[in-house]
From TrEMBL:
Residues 23-32 have a biased composition (Acidic residues). This is LRP chaperone MESD. Transmembrane segments: none annotated. GO terms for biological process: protein folding; Wnt signaling pathway. Belongs to the MESD family. GO terms for molecular function: low-density lipoprotein particle receptor binding. Residues 148-188 have a biased composition (Basic and acidic residues). It holds the Pfam family Mesd. Keywords: Chaperone, Endoplasmic reticulum, Signal, Wnt signaling pathway. It is found in: Endoplasmic reticulum. It comes from Acrocephalus arundinaceus. InterPro entries: MESD (IPR019330). It comes from the Eukaryota. The keyword Zinc does not apply.
Length: 188
């Protein structure tokens, strides 16, 4: 059993425990709970089309926060990227999509959606924009209208540098670039 302390002798940890006890008994509405504590929305399996894996993703992401990366074509400055993506965000806002935008590079932006169920509709809008090079959504890269011919591969995944290629480059350079200590001394 916890000791009884005078309220004037409480420290920060005691106050935090007291607050936890009060909140445990409170009735908090589901909408006020943080996203990770909300129960998942029930999935209606009759709406799933087995031929389209995107339909499963749409239903599982409904009501959850989701982020998509958008690349602006050409070689824009960060200011140009800001202006172009701002126009796209405004168009989406006018169509009643709640989208937040964050610039992460001179030609990249993150679009954060409060409801991931609309992500594929927003992706379809973005890839039809003239200056959109590509949209990355759930690990899939969708080329946009602004992509050059070499990038227009339907639904490719991001390429990863292979380890063999890196090893071959190291050997050809003759310079050791890893961070390991060795017993041998290399002559320069």
């Amino acid at each position: 059993p916890p000791k009884k302390k005078d309220i004037r002798d409480y420290n920060d940890a005691d106050m935090a425990r007291l607050l936890e006890q009060w909140e445990k008994d409170d009735d908090i509405e589901e909408g006020d709970l943080p996203e990770h504590k909300r129960p998942p929305a029930p999935i209606d399996f009759s709406k799933i089309d087995p031929g389209k894996p995107e339909s499963i993703l749409k239903l599982t992401k409904k009501g959850k926060t989701l982020m998509m990366f958008v690349t602006v074509s050409g070689n824009p400055t960060e200011k140009e990227t800001e202006e172009i993506t701002s126009l796209w965000q405004g168009s989406l806002f006018n169509a009643n999509y709640d989208v937040q935008r964050f610039i992460v590079g001179s030609n990249r932006a993150i679009f954060m959606l409060r409801d991931g169920g609309y992500a594929w509709e927003i992706k379809d809008f973005l890839i039809n924009q003239e200056r959109c090079a590509d949209v990355t959504l759930e690990g899939q890269v969708y080329p946009g209208k602004g992509a050059d011919g070499s990038e227009k591969v339907k639904n490719k995944t991001k390429p990863e540098k292979s380890k063999k290629k890196k090893d071959a480059e190291k050997k050809s350079n003759g310079v050791k670039e890893d961070n390991r200590a060795t017993n041998q001394r290399e002559e320069l």
